[in-house]
Amino acid sequence: MPADGREAEVLERIEAFRRRRPRLKDEIITLAHGAGGKSSAALVDAVFLEAFANDALAPLADAARLDLPGGDRLAFSTDSFVVRPRFFPGGSIGHLAVHGTVNDVAMLGARPRWLSAAFVLEEGFAVAELRDIVADMAEAARAAGVTIVAGDTKVVDRGAADGLYITTAGVGQIPPGRTVGPELVRPGDVVILSGTLADHGMAVMLARGDLTLEADIRSDTAPLGDLVEALFAAAPSTRWLRDPTRGGLGTVCNELARATNLAVVLDEALLPVDPAVAGACELLGIDPLYVANEGKLVAVVAPDEADAALDALRADPLGHAATAIGEIKADPEGIVVLLTTFGGTRIVDMLVGDPLPRIC
């Protein structure tokens, strides 16, 4: 085939891929609808956005930005936690219940301040285990600089709740003059990742004990508020932030590409993956691009602030492995492209299916 014919074929495939917006075709809920990928996006679009549509919800960010009459701005988020097992190397459901919501608030550039916590307890759940989980939550809240100020407790019949579910909601204050969002992203901007991929998801998967595989992998669950403050001090023009939880880096980059109608170009050789995690992913046939973190952030920064941003992140223990992993380009519009270590390119889609159920 002539070169111009191959180019036309590539462009046709890109255009066909661009038209593949997730659509809800299922008649019942499956585990895939909770995995953070295409099925989750289709469910949100077809059910929740259709019912709850409003300006604050429309961006579908990690948190909502709320403008108060006096001029102050708040970030508000909520999340539920159903991880199994409830304790795993590096953390517990108690740590996640604080870190997950605190980090969602921080991804709007806000300083997290307050949390609420609601517990759904199954009849027969051990009080001693509940005390341990609540102690982990208290420890995590102190480390994150937030206060748990309200809550609720419900008890359901034995067998109805898999032991324990936790929901937290968080509020943070956005400093004056600080704004992040996909509308600020421009071609030439640099994509930065604050550390290694896939640590949390693989730690939880191995902790289940369902696999005859052992590896020294710990969850990276951690509060990111201080890291965000360090980033903005060094790179005040930071454009966009996300923490790559469910669906992983590949999915959040797709969300960015679609929101901006720009290309997110990642370099496979620059993606940091701990050797133990990489080995476990390879043995299990799982792409670390789609595995969750709970203590990492992805930032898009202006090119003239990228070096300062990396220096600031690396100065913090939570960001010591920060690296620039790609850039924003004008084309192909709305697509995530991976430059492979073999010298080729491939399109990175959103997560399809549910390779890692119940990881947060």
Describe the 3D structure.
- The chain is of the alpha+beta class.
- The protein has two domains: 62-173, PurM-like, N-terminal domain (60s Ribosomal Protein L30, Chain: A, 2-Layer Sandwich); 182-347, PurM-like C-terminal domain (Phosphoribosyl-aminoimidazole Synthetase, Chain A, domain 2, Alpha-Beta Complex).
- Helix content is 32%, strand content 22%.
- The chain contains nine helices and 14 strands.
- The protein has helices at residues 3-18, 38-52, 93-106, 127-144, 199-207, 225-234, 248-260, 275-284, 306-314; strands at 64-67, 73-81, 87-88, 91-92, 111-122, 147-156, 164-173, 190-193, 240-242, 263-267, 298-301, 323-329, 336-339, 345-347.
- The strands form three sheets. It has a seven-stranded mixed beta sheet with strand order 9-11-8-12-10-13-14. Strands 1-2-7-5-6 form a five-stranded mixed beta sheet, with helices on one face. It has a two-stranded antiparallel sheet with strand order 3-4.
- Helix 3 (93-106) runs parallel beside helix 4 and helix 6 (225-234) runs antiparallel to helix 9 (306-314).
- The termini are far apart.
Write the topology of this structure:
Blueprint (H helix, E strand, L loop, with lengths): L2 H16 L19 H15 L11 E4 L5 E9 L5 E2 L2 E2 H14 L4 E12 L4 H18 L2 E10 L7 E10 L16 E4 L5 H9 L17 H10 L5 E3 L5 H13 L2 E5 L7 H10 L13 E4 L4 H9 L8 E7 L6 E4 L5 E3 L13
Parallel strand pairs: 5-6, 10-13
Antiparallel strand pairs: 1-2, 2-7, 3-4, 5-7, 8-11, 8-12, 9-11, 10-12, 13-14
Helix pairs in contact: 3-4, 6-9
At a glance:
The protein has 9 helices and 14 strands. It is an alpha+beta fold and about 350 residues long.
